[in-house]
Amino acid sequence: MTLRVGVVGGGQLARMMIAPAVEIGIELSVLAEQEGMAAKLAASAVGDYHDEQTVLDFARGVDVVTFDHEHVPQPVLRALVDAGVAVHPGPDALQYAQDKLAMRARLDELGMPQPDWAAVSDVAQLQAFLDDHGGRAVVKTPRGGYDGKGVRVVSVATEAEDWFAALAEDAHGGALLAEELVDFRRELSQQVARRPSGPVMAYPVVETVQRDGVCAEVIAPAPHISTRLAEVAGQVGVAIAAGLEVTGMLAVEMFETTDDRVLVNELAMRPHNSGHWSQDGAVTSQFEQHLRAVLDLPLGDPAPRQPWAVMVNILGGPAEGSIDARFAEVMAEHPDVKIHTYGKDPRPGRKVGHVNAVGDDLDDVVYDARAAAAFFAD
Amino acid sequence: MTLRVGVVGGGQLARMMIAPAVEIGIELSVLAEQEGMAAKLAASAVGDYHDEQTVLDFARGVDVVTFDHEHVPQPVLRALVDAGVAVHPGPDALQYAQDKLAMRARLDELGMPQPDWAAVSDVAQLQAFLDDHGGRAVVKTPRGGYDGKGVRVVSVATEAEDWFAALAEDAHGGALLAEELVDFRRELSQQVARRPSGPVMAYPVVETVQRDGVCAEVIAPAPHISTRLAEVAGQVGVAIAAGLEVTGMLAVEMFETTDDRVLVNELAMRPHNSGHWSQDGAVTSQFEQHLRAVLDLPLGDPAPRQPWAVMVNILGGPAEGSIDARFAEVMAEHPDVKIHTYGKDPRPGRKVGHVNAVGDDLDDVVYDARAAAAFFAD
């Protein structure tokens, strides 16, 4: 008998579960959206995760179902639960990662620190929110946004007119999420792992650097924040994992405000880009931790192995030639940097890989990681 | 285009190449001896590696062929080279891992430190060797031995009579290898990686603890030896890698004698049990290093990540139930220990996995690794 984890979705997060699964001795299988995806080595099925029967068939061969992304529709998730499948994170938790309005409402109930927000159903409501918040706001589509998509900073409500029009066409009706434009010093991410039976383990809070709404760089632990704020971030992460009954990895993206508070920005209920440093920088990587958590196995030590770890994304990749054609140069110049690529073709803006560097001196580590990643860009 | 490495042999060494291959973005495929082997996830073909056509067909789909073991016959290796396939290590190097008599003769030519030895073709010759070496000697079959098999300590030559009889039946004739019984303090292993283009990188020399001829435990770096002897070990490793033109990983197993010398015991031209600590204890694991080396990519940093790393093999596994049924207990008690299992069924004496522990205090690390491994035994 072998423990069997099934991952819905064949992207890089599923791919990066392969290494710890093989090492520990967990059988990983993947339901991929199409052939040749990042996680193809473990793909045991190819099919549409919107289709209930496809997902039920896939689930039959595994002990627990988990996810590469949060897009599996609630009816499909509920059908899995009804069929007796262990699903982690479960539909009750995932709804808050799928719907930003539901997330905001629930975090308010839990007393979590977050920006002012409102559900706005039309231009007039958005304009009222703008008028109350200094004439600028962030507008988000509650569903389907990622990497800066579905997010817009507006100063007049008509700038979201097209989204309101799309809402009106949507049979479900609904509203957009308007959020206060937070005056922040930097962005943080707090990761937490939680088992179905309850135990929780928090990683050190990290600093994330975004470019054009996409994560570009992560420094672990967050180098510039106070011990108190790091503790608060950890407490918020643990409280959200427990309050939403998240199982597996949870990432809480936060703003560190100029007046020294943290405010929750986004949630992700899966391994997350802000935790890739842990592959080479922590005793237990987020991918191993996710597998342990969804199997309800005791969690691993999330402590850093070295004082500093820096992750830099490879965005887009080389304009000419393949990614691996750059390996020789990077490896020659940076024998201590760890290269991770996802088997994806280069394309502008696409996350095709990342590098991790670890060490004692933050400046050195940052330089090392950035310089190595630069070899993959043109 | 992706770099493609093909591994002949589907055992745990091939399995443990999967993780770094997936992470870096190297396509790994495996020619497995049968279905369901340790490296099954990457098995693209199942077939007999003694069959030239089977191996040639497998090689067609990859950029370089390497090995899980040293048992591929020379004619098959030569056929690959003749067909223009990149083979690492190549047949010229592998002959010395396949034939212990050839190895001893070549190491003498290279001036490497080794025990007194002789090729003995009959009982009389062995008795003469015994008489010259205090009445005890180690007798080895030149081919096919591993993990203590094909090795016998004798004090009268007739104790090897059955092996001489088998030799006589062998159409090739031949001889046994007689070696001086070395008075050693402990056993060491020196690993070296070498690229086809020449560059070499040495790992720190480690101490190996054998039980019943099988590696039970490894401590990295070797804790009790002098700086001078560590340097000598490194020099011997590098000289052998260069002298035999080994490509990929080389392990040189050595005796540390009571008079403070090192003597070469065995060679392995592949990742080796004595290097499993590097998965969690070195910047570049031996499995990543092997892939880099056989692809002639720049080698990674072999430096330890922490002062100490200890590997303890899981030999046999649980007498009752499956290996993974023990995960929960081990993980609960040892959240910082890294578990590696090979997808093999428990069987007395069989290597079914190992654990790695790393840290600053050797006593703690040894305790941690041994205690964790003990959960898998009955």
UniProtKB/TrEMBL annotation, chains A, B:
Residues 104-295 form the ATP-grasp domain. ATP binds at residues 100, 140, 179-182, 187, 265-266. It catalyses: 5-amino-1-(5-phospho-beta-D-ribosyl)imidazole + hydrogencarbonate + ATP = 5-carboxyamino-1-(5-phospho-D-ribosyl)imidazole + ADP + phosphate + 2 H(+). The keyword ATP-binding applies. PROSITE patterns: ATP_GRASP. Pathway: Purine metabolism; IMP biosynthesis via de novo pathway; 5-amino-1-(5-phospho-D-ribosyl)imidazole-4-carboxylate from 5-amino-1-(5-phospho-D-ribosyl)imidazole (N5-CAIR route): step 1/2. GO terms for molecular function: 5-(carboxyamino)imidazole ribonucleotide synthase activity. Keywords: ATP-binding, Ligase, Nucleotide-binding, Purine biosynthesis. It is an enzyme of class 6 (ligase). Its EC number is 6.3.4.18. The keyword ATP-binding applies. InterPro entries: ATP-grasp, ATP-grasp_carboxylate-amine, ATP_grasp_subdomain_1, PreATP-grasp_dom_sf, PurK, PurK_C, PurT/PurK_preATP-grasp, Rudment_hybrid_motif. Catalyzes the ATP-dependent conversion of 5-aminoimidazole ribonucleotide (AIR) and HCO(3)(-) to N5-carboxyaminoimidazole ribonucleotide (N5-CAIR). Catalyzes the ATP-dependent conversion of 5-aminoimidazole ribonucleotide (AIR) and HCO(3)- to N5-carboxyaminoimidazole ribonucleotide (N5-CAIR). PANTHER family: PHOSPHORIBOSYLAMINOIMIDAZOLE CARBOXYLASE, PURINE BIOSYNTHESIS PROTEIN 6/7, PUR6/7. Belongs to the PurK/PurT family. Homodimer. NCBIfam families: PRK06019.1-5, PRK06019.1-6, purK. This is N5-carboxyaminoimidazole ribonucleotide synthase. It comes from Microbacterium horticulturae. The lineage of its organism: Bacteria, Bacillati, Actinomycetota, Actinomycetes, Micrococcales.
